Amino acid sequence: FRVRHKMRWWALLLLVSATTTLAFRFPTREEKLAAWEKLDTVKDFSDGVPPGYKLVLVNPLWRHGDRGPTEAFPGDKVTEDEWDFGGGGYGELSPIGMRQHYELGNKLYERYAANGDFLSTRYRAKEVYAKATDRNRTLISAMSNFAGMYSRAATAINGTDYPEIDAWPTSFVPIPIHTAKYMDHEGDPDSHCARQDDLWALAQQLPEYIAFDTKTRTQQTLQYLRDKTGSDANGINFDNIYILRQGMLCESIHFNDSYADWYPWYTDDVKQRVDEIDDQNVDFQNGIFASGMIQGYDLTIELPKIRGGAVINDIVDTANGVLDCYEFNNNLGGNTRCTESDHFLRNLKYYVISAHDSTIAAYLTTLEAKPYVLTSGGYPSYSAAVITEFFIDVDHGNERKFRLLFHDDEFSDFRVITPMVAGCDISEPFCDIKHIQALADKYAPEGGIDTLCDQRLDGPAVDTTKAPPPPASTASPSPSPTTTTKKTDDNVPTTVTTPSTTTSPSSLLTCVSAAAVVLIANLFF
Ligand SMILES: *[C@@H]1O[C@H](CO)[C@@H](O)[C@H](O)[C@H]1NC(C)=O
Ligand SMILES: *[C@@H]1O[C@H](CO)[C@@H](O)[C@H](O)[C@H]1NC(C)=O
Ligand SMILES: *[C@@H]1O[C@H](CO)[C@@H](O)[C@H](O)[C@H]1NC(C)=O
Prior knowledge:
The chain is built from 18 helices and nine strands. The chain has helices spanning about 1-25, 30-40, 95-110, 135-150, 185, 195-205, 205-215, 215-230, 240-255, 255-260, 270-285, 300-330, 345, 355-365, 370-375, 435-440, 450-455, 505-525, and strands spanning about 55-65, 130, 295, 295-300, 350-355, 385-395, 400-405, 415, 430. It is an enzyme of class 3 (hydrolase).
């Protein structure tokens, strides 16, 4: 008896110490968040940069500024004609949005160009390339942003950078913004994609999705909104509540005088519930599930691949090309991948993508960083930006590094978020490029995004209508919308569904175990 007793003690002791060791070695979500808090804002790109690190390429990926709603919501008091700014009509950039981007352009100029250490103080066509999704608001956001960067009386040259006439807007230097239909998948995760629709239909069958949709708080809130707006389950449900949410936000900003009188029932508490419901839906769309396995598909991989695979690969491929050319230009090594014909890559320093909240979320998801950066879930604010900086360490074998920054909104500076990227060291602002390359490979759409989108799911036919949720406790009849409307806060709504990506348990695990290795290494060496 005594022996058995003793053995139990030993077993218990072992268990406790193993648990403590594990807990100690694996950074938790809280630890990652705390690490973020400690990383100071860096205003000048050279802040905290070790000697030998040369900044080679900067990639700002931003969301457009403040805009009007993209469509009416049930009970809407404002008609499309009343949205007059940005050219008029639904979904256009407002003067507030123009200002937000003008100010972001100013901040970017201060960081990268003010002293001419990285970008020239004047617009140089070879250094800068900007593209936008084919939407008026992302195009005009980019124009406003560049006005904040380069339309400066102190540096722009009259008669060279703009015409020598009185009537010309003072010191305005026009900058080209490229766009094309092909930008759709790279820049807009909600572009039509048959495979994404199939995957979203599967996502709607996941227990986690159904549980959130059918829980009392969700259904009570949805029913309350239907009652107040005279709508039904097709008009307002878990998948389309974003329409009401975005409309309310726009009207609280642009019709603030009447807003409270029009919608007295949209109290702070109701608004908070709506935000919570919609944020959760956004995360599901992005593939953020505790377990995304269904019918042999892992939605935590499949959805991010479609939504963010193209954009992360565009960024990483461009960076690799520019880094190769930097080595070539500076005779740093035997790299032959840069040739005379690579004029574009040989001179490029600033590669802009003007896009949407959904694009930023998709990119952060493929970096497996979204839950740590957008901590309450959902999408980022107007003029939010992720900035990826690529460096080469000329003192240490031309090792390639990157640093990731986040611009939360118009009131923020740039925060270092590199440690949130899967594989990167929790305490280091820089990370080896191999980690972002690994993520680009992991989420690469095989054969290109168009090919992947044409690949419908095999197996049993997917039910494209949402399964009617079990009756919720005290709540109203359950909605069974027939189409899955995809929400795209930024995009012109389509009937396409967009599931989204997220950090899956497996990706979290990879991230956690990578961090653990680093921690263990730090402990022992
Ligand atoms: C943008 O402008 C075009 C015309 O140039 C217009 O047809 C379209 O509705 C506008 N809105 C958006 C969101 O692109
Ligand atoms: C540029 O030069 C022209 C001609 O001298 C002048 O009329 C115009 O005001 C100048 N513009 C600025 C911004 O100085
Ligand atoms: C609307 O006005 C109220 C008070 O008049 C103010 O507290 C609130 O911040 C305003 N909302 C916006 C979005 O400007």
